Every structure is written in structure tokens, then in C-alpha cells.
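Final report, closing paragraph on structural work. Over the funding period we assembled a curated collection of sequence-structure pairs, and we close with a single example.
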Amino acid sequence: MMIKRNHESKVVNLLKTFPVVAILGARQVGKTTLAKIIKEHYFPEAIYLDLESPSDIFKLEEAELYLKQFNNRLIIIDEIQRKPELFPILRSIIDKEISSKRFLILGSASPELLKKSSESLAGRIAFLELSPFMLDEINFQWQKLWLRGGFPKSFLAENDDISFMWREFFIKTITERDIPQLGFNIPSINIKRFWLMLSHYQNKLWNASQISNNLGISTPTVKNYLTILNYTYLVRILPPFYTNIKKRLIKTPKVIIRDSGILHYLLNIKNFEELIAHPIVGASWEGFVIEEILKLFSENFDAYFYRTRAGAEIDLLLTKANNIKMAIEIKYSLTPKPSKGFYIACEDLSPEKKIVVYPGDDTFIKNDVLFLSISDIKSLKNYLT
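Its predicted structure, as stored:
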């Protein structure tokens, strides 16, 4: 089954403007599939190179000589993080040849980790993050997406058992092969134990010393592990919102395992019945909804949470140019009621919109608060305007 990705037309349009377009995202998120669809439908003469293929790596031993021969053709380079020395070569080709030559590069590491790309190709490259499946891409099957997560092979598996098994092998591959290939010399058992520990802290305040004590490793090592998972799109560090109001604010970030299916594997949750009976259900739901919202808005808005020591709290704030556009509370309940802390926080911050996201069927406005069904999540874009 082929799922049409929302970013397909966006990538094609960016290729009309930028000589280099980078599709970044976690391993197995669908970058290669999307690139091959773009090749087939829009650029049939494109050249595809996979830097995990020995034969393609051999072709690039004299990279500039090889790449310059394909005039006016799109060149797709997969797993670009395997060969970061290509970035200055791409810049040289682009600057010397004022032509319609275009490069589509795919990578499993963030721009921070691929720092050479932003330095070498500044002004010449557009970055686009490909997330796991979004709700509207899979016809709003939110229960299945929440349980299995959005990695294509997990979501599209024949049944929950096969999906769970795929996630097991995915984590094994990430810890034993992919992270070492990025240059991190870490025993795979250590990073997996850390990942497992994070699952029990889903959507909680980051406490490096507590986790380091539990794992018996140093605090700097724990911080390094978190950075690695963040750079490889597997964990989100959600910062607190700072203001100059006279409140005692929480200034510690929250940590979220970005894909709910990975979270559920780590917690040994195999089906929906086990999920809704598990103590993690509320934190899992909140992380799932945050990620679905940020799939829609992360390119145009900054995301935070807000909490004071007096109990005022907002699960997710979306801001733009220092203006608070949305204050969002997330409830796993069919009869959601905003907390007192939410209302107090809204009085502190005066957001333009107040929203509660819940798993019911109806979307409605009551007392200036939008109660939004998870199935209507995409309508947030219209509501904001």
C-alpha cells in the first residue's frame, strides 16, 4: 500500500527555487520512498545514488568529476551523512555551473549534526523534515497511528504483532548500526537502556542527575545520549516558555519520545487494549498530540510548554515573532475540562487562541475555548487564521 505524502509537492516546488533541497528525518521514515516517487513522477532522468551502496560510493571517489557530467539533471544522494565531505564539492559545482542542475539529498541526521552542510551551502540549500505519517495522510486512523506510531512499515504492518516486531528490529538497527555510523562510539546496550529509561519519563521534566543515578553513568554521558537521540529525530526536547512576568517559572525542558509506536514498544505495549489500561496512557496521548500538532506547525512556529511553581500550566504553546498564537491543553477524556492551571496560565500570557484537544468526535467552541477533536487536528491551520 502506497501512502501519498504531504511533502511531495513541497519538495518539487523547493527544487524550482533552491539548487539543493535536503529531506531530513529519522531512519525508515520514508525519505527514500518519497525521493523515488519524485524521481518517477517529476524527474524521470534523475540520477539516484545510495551512500550505503559500495558501488555508488565507488562512483563518488572522484565526486566532482562524476557529478559534473549530468547536466540539467536532478541528482539524488541518499544517506548524505555517510559522506559529509560532499558538501563543499556540491557548493563548488553549483557556483561554477550556473545551470539548472539540482541536488536532492536525504539524511538521517539533523542540520546541527550535519553542520558542514549549512556552512558550505548557506543560501543554496532548503531543509525539509519528513516526519512519520501524519493523521491526514492515513485517513485519520488515530487509534492505529497512536498505537503503532507513524513509521511506514510499523503502521502498515499486517497486524499489531508484526508491527511490534518491526519496531524491535528498528531499535536494534538504530542502536547497533546507525548511531555508530554517525561517529558516536557508544555501546549499543547503553543507549538502549537510556532510551528505555526515557520511556518511563515520557513528557516529564528532564532530570539528568536522576537518570544518571538510575543507570549508573555520569550526568555528562546522559546529556550526550539525549543529544544523540535528539539529533537523530527520535526524541524531542520541548523547552519551557520564558517571560518577564513576575512568576516563579519552571525552567527545565520536557523530553518526549517522538514516535508513539517506539514509546509503546519500549514499554512492551502490544495492542490498543493494553495501551488504554497502562499508567502511561495520559503521557503517551499528550506526546502523540504534541507531535501531530508540530508536524503541522513546526516550520512556521516555535513550540514551548509553560508551567509555574504555583501550578499554572499549558501543555503546548505555539509562538511567532514573540506573539503567543495558541495555548493548547491536551486531555485524554471524552468530557474534557480545562484545568484551573490552564485558565490561570492563559491569564498570565493572553494567547490569541485557547484550545483543548481530545479524542472525541465533535469539535465546538465553549467559553472562548476551542474543543478540538483529534480527527479535526488539521483544521487548526484554518482556526489560526
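The chain is about 40% helix and 20% strand. The mean pLDDT is 92. We thank the funder for supporting this effort.
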